[in-house]
């Protein structure tokens, strides 16, 4: 028979020297008995980050069609006013992004122009790492900014997963967390499909002796939650899920929408477009058609996702944000492509956005090594999403204060 | 009938370290039973097979612990020899190296060494994707395994000059002109005395001790002219770290979390462990003392450690005496956040209870379901032995029937003799099974 | 258990049941089968196929393997053997004679839908058929009586014929020497209605079936003939979805787009199977048309008499492939053919842009190549026994250039730039790089690159020594090869061709040849690596893994040579497969 604590107590000589075990329990486990049980997540806001791997050509996405420098520098890529989906007298979306044009007109899309990273290394891996860690100056960084946000969220509701990566490449470093486990969910994989049996449900619902073992108490509550979550997930999966095109990103966003609908409590999602590695947006050669295809996938998938959420009245809880490690050069190279650049627009989509263009337009008259300078530090956008959308302490996550942007209604 | 209660009553435990760490002797009030044996096997061998548990019941705690700590060399040596060869041949690929490590955990006759290798890996926390190659990573794992139950000093001395550690700690080049304070801080923080027990000056001195060490083409090299002659050697640094009692304290606390409980103990319980460690840092006697203790067999420890995904999967496979494809297993465990060659941060994997949340439990259920499925990546290789097709046997083997009566009955009522895999799956989804 | 092996007893059971079910009436079986059937399989010479299944060198090799012996020790095999013995006692003959007696007139199997199957067998020996029926009836009666149950056999008349049924999933009738066996009573009745000349349309008058038969008429002596109503099969949503799904991988699109296109178009598919002198051949045809000159997949369709060139021969060749692919037309249609912009494709284009100095990949690079592309895979030899641990075969591709004098230099420059890039990248990772050499072989100056073995330590990764990449020009041919020995062998082959040019196989766009013995040889050379891989991929013990790999090598060796031809005949896509036994 296992010794009980009382046994040890009885055997003890110095009974005066007792200590409370609960005092040494991990902080979060103390809170679970009350908080975890009744926390409802239906009011929680959700952030979906879309990584565009390879360095997206912002000038070919939101096109400054009437700018001389643009027209002069782009021989095979140049789009004129007649080509683009103009949103004002100077800018228009790439012709293959009609979805973005519609979202923009409906006020569901905000563009942060000229966002970028100071001291951009113009090299894929380090540049991407800067965006993923939001700590450009830290040597040997250990966590990503989403990972830190997950850790912070997890202290409020330890029984619920705060974040998940949805995709079929290796989990990006942005999700790396110090204290939380971040799952990878594949849209085509078997994850989260197990079916509970009546016997198991009954066995789970039998109360455990909560005083004897706080670990068992915690695990037991989570197991009951998990079984319930699985049932919601199954019914969410059975619903017809919007009109998504047949692309990986669309599959991944459909899965995200299912997970939001099933109300598992995940507040931070991360998906990727470009196929990992160096990335599909790295168009050094033959950019025209290749980039158009990716932009069409981006706009098609995001629009389907927004429409899907809107139909289910979930859009007001969701903010989607795109980023890429850098923009591209204004000039074309000799291979009908573009080189690594600096600033690029970030796109935000959701139900509570004020819409419109934020920040100064890409300035083609003041270039640094052939690329427009960053005018908005990307961490200001992160800070806005963290503090004003997720209601998290952005200073704790980003390590400094960054002035938020006014982008919500 | 299943006894589910360990009437602890309130959250208090006596503060009698001497008794807590004294060797457990079974008596009328604390008999040696299946639960004790299974608890011991979970902590030292991922899980016990039915035969092992039966043998342990007959042999009693002392003899069983003897066997787990000193497994028969005539089994261990040939196994290691064979496995080392296979592993070395596969080390060109990180994914294959990971698969071979998981296979070693499943098949080794010396599982405690693997559990301790995992312990050290969690402490040193070198990521394979930073170490650069499978071969470098293999060398590092061998280093940890060789000293897993040995002495901390030699392990640390070798580790700070290991190419995997140098690369993994972002310290490929330690130049005289530019000592690597970041590297030094990582060493002192996690492997030395820990935060609060070192100063900026200590960091600077440690960094200077490491100057001259480089990782070049997968090998560590000492370049004399890059070494700061005014500073000590790397061995001096290690001696300095070990001389600090706080280093022993941090190690003792880590061992406590690994072997006893995820709930941190009061300082008084740690003190005897520090005494046992300091100053020689011999690991085996301390592990032995912990495993034999009253505390280990008390409900302070019983089901007070959350199984990591690797422990859950390897434990289940060992219980069922199966052998599964470990390449897909490595991938599936990675999706659950447990890529066993890539600890997420310098601090290793998250603290035990962090493994548990709504999604992770569903993910665990999926892995177990997939392991037990008749078809799929695991090829239906995991099943209960044909002569053991009995529902109560499953409950005894996996949870020693230590469930609330109503829970056990609900599972048994649902269990069809032809669908014991379904019952195994259900048991693996119970909160009790997530705990070691 | 090794999977393919476990299928063999199942296949034999099938042949057995086929035979139990079966013999020779005037009307062809297709007159009795509804025209809505999805698949019709006509085994015209059952004995030929049984002989092949049992006696061919392939099945002999399998049967003599230890795995087969192990499988024989399984309880299921014993049951199977009991079944065979029971059958032999019943018919008072050995099982092969029994099958011949019961099915000698041919067997036709038709699939009407899920779980809806009918089999029509014509016995050569009608007494055997009647004996089988009677004995089985009595056997079922006795078995039921022993359990105190009534006779399970239900008997009734339909369209003037006696029908029998043992259970809900079986119904049969005997008409002269013909057995009709159906998976449901209703299906049996449908067949009998058709026989009586009323009810729905029959297969033998369906347009598709007749066209399929016509298309295969040159092989009307074939041992078996299959007709698939592809249009009906495509009604299945999963099948339709699978067909409509685009191909993501550009290489897969290059190889398979013509087949995928044919599958999308086809209304029916016909296949004939024949065995001659231990060699098995299968010819598959559909009604799909070869695409028009401006169609998406026209890049793979030569206009006669052009076609894929005869394959190149080299020593130690384990596989050779010859394709007719207009790469220029293919790449120009990439947005339709493989719409996904994967990271790998972008990387490829970026690199090609660098290697070819900004030349347009479609017009200025791929446009320089003739549509004749040949690949050779051959085992390597290593001097002085210094073989790397993993022994890769050599790979080579041979292009034909339109303007060899100009383009060979462009290609050479691109190749050297690629090597420079590889060396630079490897240097960044502190990995050894390649040294370039310009040797001459048989009067041809070519470029090769090799890894120096200075500083290589034993036990380190030596996989790189598999590679000795080369580029060579022979006449208007361009060789790109992973190894130097294969380059030299190809120079020899191409020089021989300059005196007697390779013949184009008219209307064939793909010719694939595999040599089992040579393939077995390279598998054997990598046996240890394969075993290790098997252990972690399949969770086998070392002994199990060794068994599976040995079995694989045995089978591959026994396959002998395989040859696949894909192309068109009379403007319809056609695939030919030939398996010749090992010599």
What's the arrangement of secondary structure elements?
The complex is a heterotrimer of chains A (409), B (436) and C (583).
Chain A: H1 5-11, E1 19-20, H2 21-24, H3 27-38, E2 46-52, E3 62-63, H4 68-73, E4 85-86, E5 92-93, H5 98-105, E6 109-116, H6 124-133, H7 145-154, E7 163-166, E8 184-185, H8 198-205, H9 214-238, H10 248-261, E9 268-273, H11 287-311, E10 318-324, E11 328-332, E12 338-340, E13 344-350, E14 356-358, E15 367-368, E16 371-372, E17 376-377, H12 378-389, H13 394-398
Parallel strand pairs in A: 2-9, 2-10, 6-14, 6-17, 7-8, 7-9
Antiparallel strand pairs in A: 3-5, 4-5, 6-13, 10-13, 11-12, 15-16
Chain B: E1 12-13, H1 17-21, H2 34-45, H3 50-69, H4 73-90, H5 94-107, H6 111-124, H7 128-131, H8 134-146, H9 152-159, H10 163-168, H11 181-191, H12 200-209, E2 213-216, E3 219-222, H13 234-243, H14 245-259, H15 267-277, H16 283-292, H17 309-319, H18 326-335, H19 358-372, H20 391-399, H21 405-414, H22 420-428
Antiparallel strand pairs in B: 2-3
Chain C: H1 3-20, E1 39-43, H2 46-55, H3 57-63, H4 66-72, H5 75-91, H6 95-103, E2 107-113, E3 116-122, H7 126-146, E4 154-158, E5 161-167, E6 170-175, E7 178-182, H8 185-195, H9 207-215, E8 224-228, H10 230-233, H11 237-244, H12 250-265, E9 269-276, E10 279-286, E11 317-324, H13 327-332, H14 334-337, H15 343-355, H16 361-365, E12 369-378, E13 394-401, H17 404-428, E14 434-437, E15 440-441, E16 444-445, E17 447-451, E18 470-474, E19 477-481, H18 484-499, E20 508-515, H19 516-525, H20 527-538, H21 542-559, E21 561-569, E22 572-580
Antiparallel strand pairs in C: 1-2, 1-8, 2-3, 3-7, 4-5, 5-6, 6-7, 8-9, 9-10, 10-22, 11-12, 11-20, 12-13, 13-19, 14-17, 15-16, 17-18, 18-19, 20-21, 21-22
């Amino acid at each position: 028979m296992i010794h009980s604590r009382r046994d040890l107590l009885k055997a003890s000589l110095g009974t005066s020297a007792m200590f409370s075990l609960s005092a040494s329990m991990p902080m979060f486990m103390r809170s679970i008995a009350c908080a975890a049980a009744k926390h409802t997540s239906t009011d929680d806001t959700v952030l979906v980050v879309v990584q565009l791997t390879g360095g997206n050509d912002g000038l070919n996405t939101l096109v400054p069609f009437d700018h001389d420098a643009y027209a002069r520098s782009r021989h095979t890529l140049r789009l004129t006013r007649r080509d683009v989906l103009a949103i004002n007298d100077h800018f228009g979306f790439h012709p293959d992004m009609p979805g973005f044009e519609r979202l923009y007109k409906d006020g569901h899309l905000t563009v942060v122009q000229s966002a970028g990273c100071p001291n951009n290394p113009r090299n894929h891996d380090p540049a991407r790492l800067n965006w993923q860690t939001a700590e450009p100056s830290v040597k040997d960084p250990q966590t990503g900014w989403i990972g830190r946000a997950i850790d912070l969220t997890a202290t409020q509701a330890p029984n619920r997963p705060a974040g998940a990566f949805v995709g079929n490449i290796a989990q990006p470093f942005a999700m790396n967390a110090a204290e939380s486990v971040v799952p990878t969910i594949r849209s085509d994989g078997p994850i989260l499909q197990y079916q509970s049996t009546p016997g198991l449900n009954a066995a789970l619902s039998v109360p455990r002796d909560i005083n004897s073992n706080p670990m068992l108490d915690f695990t037991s509550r989570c197991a009951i939650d998990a079984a319930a979550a699985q049932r919601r997930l199954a019914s969410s999966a059975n619903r017809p899920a919007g009109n998504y095109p047949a692309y990986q990103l669309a599959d991944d966003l459909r899965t995200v929408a299912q997970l939001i609908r099933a109300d598992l409590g995940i507040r931070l999602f991360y998906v990727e477009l470009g196929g990992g590695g160096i990335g599909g947006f790295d168009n050094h050669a033959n950019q025209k058609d290749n980039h158009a295809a990716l932009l069409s996938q981006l706009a098609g998938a995001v629009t389907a996702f927004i429409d899907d959420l809107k139909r289910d009245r979930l859009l007001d809880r969701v903010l989607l944000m795109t980023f890429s490690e850098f923009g591209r050069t204004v000039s074309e190279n000799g291979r009908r492509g573009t080189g690594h650049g600096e600033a690029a627009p970030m796109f935000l989509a959701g139900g509570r956005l004020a819409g419109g263009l934020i920040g100064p337009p890409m300035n083609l008259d003041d270039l640094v090594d052939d690329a427009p300078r960053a005018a908005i530090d990307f961490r200001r956008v992160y800070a806005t999403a963290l503090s004003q959308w997720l209601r998290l302490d952005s200073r704790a996550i980003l390590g400094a204060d960054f002035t938020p942007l006014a982008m919500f209604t | 009938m299943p006894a589910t209660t360990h009437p602890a009553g309130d959250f208090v435990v006596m503060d009698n370290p001497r008794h807590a760490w004294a060797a457990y002797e079974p008596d009328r009030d604390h008999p040696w039973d299946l639960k004790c044996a299974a608890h011991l096997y979970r902590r030292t061998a991922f899980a016990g097979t039915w035969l092992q548990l039966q043998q342990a019941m007959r042999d009693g705690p002392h003899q069983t612990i003897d066997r787990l700590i000193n497994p028969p060399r005539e089994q261990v040596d040939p196994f290691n020899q064979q496995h080392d060869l296979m592993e070395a041949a596969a080390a060109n690929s990180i994914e294959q190296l990971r698969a071979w490590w998981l296979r070693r955990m499943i098949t080794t006759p010396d599982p405690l060494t693997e559990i301790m290798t995992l312990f050290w890996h969690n402490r040193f926390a070198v990521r394979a994707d930073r170490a650069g190659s499978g071969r470098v990573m293999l060398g590092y794992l061998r280093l940890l395994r060789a000293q897993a139950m040995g002495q901390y000093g030699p392990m640390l001395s070798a580790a700070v000059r290991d190419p995997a550690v140098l690369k993994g700690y972002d310290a490929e080049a330690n130049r005289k002109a530019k000592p690597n304070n970041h590297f030094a801080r990582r060493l002192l923080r996690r492997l030395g005395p820990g935060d609060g027990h070192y100063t900026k000056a200590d960091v600077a001195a440690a960094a200077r001790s490491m100057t001259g060490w480089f990782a070049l083409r997968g090998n560590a090299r000492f370049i004399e002219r890059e070494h700061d002659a005014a500073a000590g050697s790397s061995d001096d640094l290690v001696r300095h770290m070990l001389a600090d009692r706080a280093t022993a304290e941090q190690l003792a606390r880590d061992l406590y979390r690994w072997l006893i409980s995820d709930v941190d103990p009061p300082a008084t319980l740690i003190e005897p462990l520090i005494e046992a460690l300091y100053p020689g840092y011999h690991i085996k006697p301390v592990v032995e003392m912990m495993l034999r203790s009253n505390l280990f067999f008390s409900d302070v420890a019983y089901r007070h450690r959350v199984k990591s995904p690797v422990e859950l999967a390897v434990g289940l496979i060992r219980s069922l005496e199966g052998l599964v494809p470990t390449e897909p297993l490595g991938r599936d465990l990675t999706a659950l956040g447990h890529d066993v060659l890539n600890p997420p941060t310098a601090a290793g994997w998250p603290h035990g209870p962090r493994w548990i949340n709504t999604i992770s439990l569903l993910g665990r259920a999926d892995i177990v379901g997939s392991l037990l499925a008749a078809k799929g990546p695991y090829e239906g290789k995991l099943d209960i032995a044909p002569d053991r097709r009995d529902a109560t046997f499953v409950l005894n083997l996996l949870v020693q029937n230590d469930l609330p009566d109503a829970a056990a009955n609900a599972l048994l009522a649902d269990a069809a003799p032809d669908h014991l895999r379904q019952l195994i799956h259900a048991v693996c989804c119970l909160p009790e099974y997530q705990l070691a | 258990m090794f999977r393919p092996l476990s299928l063999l007893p199942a296949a034999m059971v099938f042949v057995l049941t086929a035979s139990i079910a079966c013999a020779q009436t005037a009307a062809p079986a297709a007159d009795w089968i509804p025209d809505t059937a999805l698949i019709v399989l006509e085994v015209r010479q059952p004995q030929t196929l049984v002989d092949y299944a049992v006696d061919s060198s392939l099945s002999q090799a399998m049967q003599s393997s230890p795995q087969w012996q192990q499988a024989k020790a399984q309880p299921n095999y014993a049951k199977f053997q009991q079944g065979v013995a029971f059958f032999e006692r019943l018919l008072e003959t050995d099982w092969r004679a029994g099958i011949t007696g019961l099915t000698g007139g041919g067997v036709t199997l038709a699939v009407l839908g899920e779980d809806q199957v009918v089999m029509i067998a014509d016995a050569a020996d009608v007494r055997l058929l009647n004996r089988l029926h009677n004995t089985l009836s009595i056997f079922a009666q006795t078995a039921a009586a022993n359990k105190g149950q009534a006779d399970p056999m239900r008997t009734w008349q339909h369209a003037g014929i006696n029908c029998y049924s043992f259970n809900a999933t079986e119904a049969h009738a005997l008409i002269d020497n013909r057995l009709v066996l159906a998976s449901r009573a209703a299906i049996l009745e449908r067949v009998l209605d058709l026989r009586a000349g009323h009810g729905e349309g029959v297969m033998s008058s369906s347009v598709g079936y007749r066209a399929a038969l016509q298309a295969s008429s040159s092989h009307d002596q074939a041992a078996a003939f299959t007709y698939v109503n592809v249009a009906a099969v495509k009604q299945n949503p999963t099948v339709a979805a699978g067909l409509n799904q685009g191909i993501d991988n550009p290489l897969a699109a290059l190889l398979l787009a013509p087949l995928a296109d044919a599958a999308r178009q086809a209304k029916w598919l016909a296949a004939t199977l024949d065995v001659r002198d231990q060699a098995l051949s299968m010819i598959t045809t559909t009604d799909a048309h070869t695409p028009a000159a401006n169609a998406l997949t026209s890049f793979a369709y030569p206009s006669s008499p052009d076609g894929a060139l005869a394959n190149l021969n080299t020593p130690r060749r384990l596989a050779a492939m010859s394709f007719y692919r207009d790469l220029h037309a293919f790449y120009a249609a990439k947005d339709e053919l493989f719409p996904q912009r994967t990271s790998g494709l972008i990387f490829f284009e970026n690199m090609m842009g660098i290697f070819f100095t900004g030349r347009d990949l479609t017009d200025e690079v791929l446009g320089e190549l003739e549509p004749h592309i040949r690949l050779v895979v051959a085992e390597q030899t290593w001097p002085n026994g210094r073989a790397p641990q993993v022994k890769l075969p050599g790979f080579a591709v041979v292009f034909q250039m339109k303007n060899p004098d100009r383009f060979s230099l462009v290609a050479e420059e691109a190749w050297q730039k690629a090597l420079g890039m590889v060396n630079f990248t490897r240097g960044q990772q502190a990995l050894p790089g390649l040294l370039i050499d310009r040797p001459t072989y048989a009067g041809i100056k070519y470029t090769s690159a090799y890894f120096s073995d200075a500083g290589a330590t034993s036990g380190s990764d030596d996989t790189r020594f598999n590679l000795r990449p080369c580029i060579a020009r022979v006449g208007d041919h361009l060789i790109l090869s992973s190894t130097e020995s294969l380059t030299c062998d190809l120079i020899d082959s191409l020089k021989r061709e300059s005196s007697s040019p390779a013949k184009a196989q008219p209307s064939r766009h793909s010719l694939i040849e595999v040599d089992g013995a040579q393939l077995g040889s390279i598998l054997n050379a990598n046996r240890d690596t394969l075993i290790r891989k098997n252990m972690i991929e399949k969770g086998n013990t070392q002994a199990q893994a060794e068994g599976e790999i040995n079995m694989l090598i045995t089978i591959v060796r026994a396959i002998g040579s395989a040859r696949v031809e894909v192309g068109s005949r009379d403007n319809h896509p056609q695939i030919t497969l030939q398996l010749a036994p090992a010599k």
